[in-house]
Batch of 3 targets.
Target 1
Amino acid sequence: MSKILIDGSKGEGGGQILRTSFSLAAITGQEIEIFNIRAKRAKPGLMRQHLTSISAVAEVCGGKLEADRVTFKPGAICGGPYHYSIGTAGSTTLVAQTLLPVLAAANESSVITLEGGTHNGMSPSLDYLEQAFLPVLTSIGLQASIERDRYGFYPAGGGKWQLKVTGAACIKTLALLEPPQDIRSVHTLSCRLPKHVPKRQADYAKQSRDWENAEHNEKWVDALCPGNVFSAVIGQPPLVAQFDSIAKLGVPAERVASKALKKANRFLHSGAAVDEHLADQLLLYMAIAGKGVFTTTTPSEHTKTNIAVIRQLTDKAIQLEQLDKLRWRCFL
């Protein structure tokens, strides 16, 4: 089998090209070489979280990794205990998402311990992973669970958690056409901040159209530095749409809440089953199953690039069809 060459600058040219390529290469046993890695980014090349992700995949399948243009020749996938530390506030959830489909294909179960960032604003949060992403995967046959030791907010990082993955998963066909149940809640997650911060966020939601009757869940956690996340949540497992907004120094609490609520309201008006971020993350599992369909909001460049990478590695052509102004159908 000849080596597959993948241009890391295609489409949106980000780290998802690396993660999808390595996951699929490990599962299919294909040798790949990636060049122009993250060429369109302000800081091109491999960041710590990207290097951790691909090194982890190479380890669990006994693969050979050459860092010149990033050549990867996978071997047999082995489950078991693994431990990866990014050493910064870089996203541990992106490392987990890269490993998850690979270890689900192993013949034995695995426990991955991850250290680094859990909520950094540039990737899915740990709570999103547990509350929105994993329930959908459970519904199609992948069994995984999360245990937390400590959260890791930007800029200190320092989070630590475990992902338990049951091996030998049989991924079933994905079919998500109807929107989540119209159950709305808001969640505040805070560490070492004044008590009025999450209260102001909850009060803002109560005064917002469509969210005045939403249930409020407040959680205080331990971390190496202060942090705050406001989440607007629609639905209940297995189908949940979650929109996170992570606080930044100097940004009013109300503005943090407003950002998440605006994203949630756009999704509510679309009538789609999954938001653009979850859509992007489900593409790989659709390809593994060989068939599937879901409705989503306007696809991002991230999603279109992911579809192109999946087609190059599997020859499976995932299609996008616009249904109306706000809703699209994604199918294979």
Target 2
Amino acid sequence: MRVALAGGGTAGHIEPALSLADALRRIDPNTEILCLGTERGLETRLVPMRGYELGLIPAVPLPRRLTPQLLSVPGKLAGALSAAGEQLDRIQADVLVGFGGYVATPGYLAARRRKVPIIVHEANPLPGLANRLGARLTPHVFTGHPHTQIRNGRFIGIPLRHQVTSLDRLAMGDKARAYFGLRPDLPTLLIFGGSQGAQRVNEAAFATRDAFRDAGVQVLHVVGPKNADEPQDLTQDGIPYVAVPYVDRMDMAYAAADVAMCRSGALTCAELTAVGLPGAFVPLAIGNGEQALNADPIVQAGGGIMVNNADLSPDWIVQRLIPLLTDTDRVVSMSEAAARMGRRDADMELAREVAAIARGDKPTPDMPLPEDDGDDAYYDDGKDTR
């Protein structure tokens, strides 16, 4: 089986693609995987690091609105489409799976020209333009959010790293805390803002250090590589506050924590619910508010709390978050509620679908190319969903 994956630019597109690749290899170690990407995205680091081949094509950013920039898209798209087609021909792809982002549109169109079956996975509740186009070229469309409105969409969850989905937080808790230099006997808050950190989250957390100490709450704070060069031990009176630039073992960070204060990108929400970790969500007000939409079902189910980015402050942390961390029964209840929302098997379920479609077990109708339906609501498909 030869599979092309199109999902570059941001971690929110790349990580699900790589998790699917891992699952396909668990089904059949001989599966040939090619990841389409651009030379300026995170895929240039993440894809080779995970042991997969990266095929580079030109990036084609799509404007979020009808602007004069749209006039430059056809010319750029032609070159990207040609490059994507060459990559598909080189491996003789049996199927193309797209996750959105700059590379998905040329990938979908190149596959369509070659009659290569197309599969679309949309992680967000509000689909991006690339995946809305892809969904019009195939009946095989899967979503990571139960309320995503996209043509032919079927909820399956977001493919996640096996390292995360196989995590037993309770069994690993003491080991994980020791790994980060934390105590085994204190309520633990994990703070992170995505791959680059989050300024408002960082500022509010640092301003609350004394309150954390006074409440006996220890903190593991991932500040982002642009905000620190090396770990800092900010322990006060024996209550650890560990600040690190980056964590490459998020499974251990999840196991160490009782609650996470974080953004609410699609991937983050999927990982927290998969491991049953309650979230204090601080959605970034981007696009059409999709981060808040990601977190809302979890909050409604009792698996998290949410505060607007503009409203996050030391006072909110003291009044809402610290009382939660020190209420063991409430933390346990929220953990159970979060876990009920989680999907741990989306990677294998999607991998089985891909394998069946690649084998031709599921028919792919000869669908017509999309026609203009008057839809001019463009969304930025290059955002970081973390």
Target 3
Amino acid sequence: MHALMARLFPICRSITGNGVRETLAVLREYLPALQVHEVPSGTPALDWTVPAEWNIRDAWVKNAAGERVIDFQQHNLHVLQYSTPVHGWFSRRELDEHLFSLPEQPDLIPYRTSYYQASWGFCLRHHQREQLREEHYEVCIDSTLDASGSLTYGELVLPGASEEEVLLSCHCCHPSLANDNLSGLAVAVFLAQALARQPRRYTYRFVFGPGTIGSLVWLSRHRETVGRIRHGLVLTLLGGPGGFTYKQSRRATADIDRTVALVLRDFGAEYEVRPWLPYGYDERQYCSPGFNLPVGCLSRTPFGEFAEYHTSADNLSFVRPEQVAESLRLTEAVCEALERNHTYRNLSPYGEPQLGRRGLYKGVGGGQEGADWQMVLLWLLSLSDGSKSLLDVAEQANLPLALLHRAASALEGAGLLQPL
């Protein structure tokens, strides 16, 4: 996963353009069935419109000696995203109106955008900005905004036994930012590979698109089929340090909200479950009132709560292999829990069934040996009246989902439980 991120890191991605296409072309090497879609600029997308396609070849600010004092070739964060083309001489005062820096973090380059309002600019280290003392500078941004271009997104569907779907979505529109972009992509790619190798109860749909406008475009093209989505996650910020954070869907009590909370409880890592907030990543679009899909957001430390967020410090050193590996294990555990969450009926509901003659009960009474396992079996038998799922049992009895899965298999094998 880290090697994939390292390969994608230099690419200058935006909400449209060749950077997204190049990124998706790399992902198709890992996921050959990934479908790439182009949506023409000007296409309506719910209340939005697909913008003109933006591409950039070069950008710089030169001093009087012709030296590049700000250079897009050195770091693609140096240019304000979606900058309009410009070439000319500007006074230091005029240039300053188009510069972005962080006085409180003077060694870092900020990430800034101007997607929907025509503008141009440069982002730079504050120390670097303070060194710009000459009266005039030559400025060039060699970019294009093509009204006949398109927006690009990728989609992978892994069919399951059911047409009911699990939606997994991540954004692919940021330039060289490792945690806030590439970590979600890497985890999603390797999760898709893992799911493709195993039998699936659900159909899994992976969407790789630019933030906000990408999910809006996807939703506008799937209005008749989104009703098949039973569970969903937006995957982002999964490579940085810190514990896990799950932001609930707008519904708050959807099965995905309950499942992630239970998996996190049993996973063994620090975590926090937060209530719905109408700000953040693409869960805002999936959970908008008209759709109200059961889609939460899974991350580690949330956006804006780590010093490296949207700066040049969000690099490949900030994202560690062990951190993305743990995130992958967690997402796999969530999918496994969704797959195995059945509702059962007790086939011997009149009185407690005799577990001993079925090899499910301890041989000697009176002691506490094996008592925990016995309680799991008894809880399942007690609550499996055809109305409660394993999620219900795990919440009411405060039991680990993985242990309930084992117990359900044992009781089903003994002819005592039947999945509905």
